[in-house]
Amino acid sequence: MPTSAEEKTIDDPNHFPKSFDVPGFVSESRPELQVVRSVSRRSEQPLFFARYRHDKPDLGLLEPTPLADQVTVAVELRPFRPINVFCDGRHKRKPASEPGALALYDLRKSWVADIRDPFDNLSVYIPFGSFRDFAAERGSSFQELRYDVEEVRYDAVMLHLMQAILPVLERPHEVSTLFLDSLFLAVRDHIAATYGTFSTKTTSNKWGLTVRQLRHALEYIEAHLSEDVSLAEVANASVTSVSSLTRGFNASLGVSPHRWVLKRRIALAQRLMYEGATPLSEVAVCCGFADQSHLTRVFMRQVGSTPTVWRRKVHR
Fold first, then answer.
1. Helix and strand totals (H; E) in the chain
2. Of 61, 119, 201, 285, which is least packed with CB atoms within 10 Å of its CB?
3. What average pLDDT does the chain have?
4. 23 CB contacts (<8 Å, ≥6 apart)?
5. Domains and CATH numbers, the chain
6. Number of neighbours of residue 92 by Cβ within 10 angstroms
7. pTM, entire model
8. Cβ atoms within 10 Å of 53's Cβ, excluding its own
9. Quick check: 122 and 75 in contact, CB under 8 A?
10. DSSP assignment of 257-288, as one string?
11. How much is the average pLDDT of 301-310?
12. Dihedral sign, Cα of residue 159, residue 67, residue 31, residue 60
């Protein structure tokens, strides 16, 4: 159970998180206000509540830190016009929405959004392990969350729960640990019951990697996207074996380490192409591809178009 609440306020817009142990952003663009509160727990990873606000238009590309083992549950406090979103490189059009709109972002995937309107939202980061716990308590196993970013959803229960989070962010010294724990469980249980799918068949809890090992592996990969890293190097960075690394990636992320690296390289390539006129040959090298043709082949498989066509389309 939670033992303490700590404030992590990021007010430097040029600050880059050095690790993936707290919510943040890997893009150069980031909100003017980032207030993150953590709820420390004795034996489990911390829980996070956050508020992100930006009062100026045309922020640009925003890419959250790929925490991988968590889902972001966000409720918007301002209206939004339609937004271009890229999920694992594929373009999606998020419709216009009013205050109270709910969004779920599976951070096992790469998300990038082109933010053009001012915004204000409240978020909770829920570990997938918590959904597995929810299922185990009911004699079932967690499968996935049902949510489509291209559909607008309004959830009155979640809006009420998120509004209860505001005192946590504004006056943490007045909030008890018991309240924080109860609030988190209420959010978790509602999301699981409303948007989760479960199987009556129970599954093993041997995931191959601990949360810390997975985080260290992801941090190492992100810091070496331009390099030809080996499985042994990633395994060494996360203090595990190659077999445990591979098994852990497949169990926690649903992909092999190689596929995860390609996803992150494509996400980086899209940022570079979107934010400037960098030649594709340079983009390829910066993202760890052998050459431009290698980038094009992988881009085609993951995104469904060539880098040239994609760049032309998003800059219309």
1. 11, 13
2. 201
3. 84
4. 36, 48, 50, 64, 65, 67, 72, 123, 125
5. 2-199 (2.60.120.10), 211-314 (1.10.10.60)
6. 14
7. 0.71
8. 16
9. yes
10. HHHHHHHHHHHHHHHHHHHS---HHHHHHHTT
11. 90
12. negative
